Amino acid sequence: MGLTGLEIFKQLPKTNCKDCGHPTCLAFAMAMAAGKAGLDQCPHVSEAAKEALGAASAPPVALVKIGTGEKELTLGNETVLFRHDKRFEHPTGIAITVSDTAGKEEIAARVGQINKLVFDRVGQLHSVNLVAVTNDSGDADKFVAAVKVAAENTAYPLILITEDTAAMEKALEVVGSKKPLLCGATAANYEGMTALAKKYEAPMVVKGADLNGLAELVEKVVALGHKQLILDSGAREVHKVLADQTQIRRQALKRFRPFGYPTITFVTNEDPVQAVADAAVYICKYAGIVVLQTADPADILPLITLRLNIYTDPQKPIAVESKIYEIGNPGPDSPVYITTNFSLTYFCVAGDVEASRVPGYILPVDTDGISVLTGWAAGKFTPEKIAEMLKNSGIAEKVSHRKVIIPGGVAVLSGKLQELSGWEVLVGPRESSGIPSFLKQRWNV
Ligand code: SF4
Question: Where's the 4Fe-4S domain (predicted)?
Fold first, then answer.
């Protein structure tokens, strides 16, 4: 169990100086006990207090990194059970398996297929994160050969799946510098596997036969001096995995240290539809990594979309950059549309402008990512901000006319905007789906 707010408070300077962003030391202590503040936010805390509060200030789920370079995957630092309590910090890493029973060309082709699993969703690129090489052959040399081919053909971090310490050692001689995830340590091999993980400073999966076995094994591995761990409860049936994932997160938040690490789950269902459904459960319920056998884009896209939804910060709307967007190949006579930079709003407008088959310019005003009517009600979508965008975006150099179309829902802005900007303001349809017919009736330059 972690320290209570009062226990933390006793260790603080009690000056109420507010430098931590909290009104009092007690408020800060309470926030820290709830996992919503870190000790480093108080610049005045003594060394003795730092030592005493170290465990309480550490995140309930440790931060673990896999791989190196641009595609390095970061997991952990989670502080809540439910996304709406704050947010989930690091999205579930999606791993796709590559078996060492396949030939070199087949492995290279499969890895190439995995590399292509990149999708554009609301203006952002989303992809899978890891390539998991499995030692299905049971042969160390075949495993090393497969690991080598995979590493040569992808920039994604690798998961090395073998419980054979000798095979793992040989594979690490080839790819150890890339900090792959060792998968992993069991009750039978943990000493040798931990020694390898320490030698290469690589993260390691600890697999228990059940939750009790897992907790015991984690304590043994930590006692050997390795803390970059990922937990595998050993469960493979969806109901058992769900129960274990939930229990691990709950206990981690209660500061039960053996469970204070990200988790890994394996989708083993042979029914392809059920496999995607199982993976969806794991993404929703705390899996740090989901290992899948499918590399079919039709299976991966829904999971990536789900992950995007679950791991979006509920306090921060998804926004597009506030700049000129060209739809089609617009020219000097093309219409100019104003909207807000809330992603869903922007993409609705962009889709409907495209559907009109009349190339145009869209200028999403920065409203901190909120929609048209909310932005107007919050004073973030104002004639002043729209006029500023018309002036500073450079749109005046791109078009020869001075007509701008605003959303019908904010017709009330038109008079002031016209006065401030000098542009003729056309009040567009209330819904962007009305843009095609609006253009036919009202647009002529
Ligand atoms: S910065 Fe430290 S001393 Fe100042 S109010 Fe916050 S907890 Fe108290």
Answer: 1-59
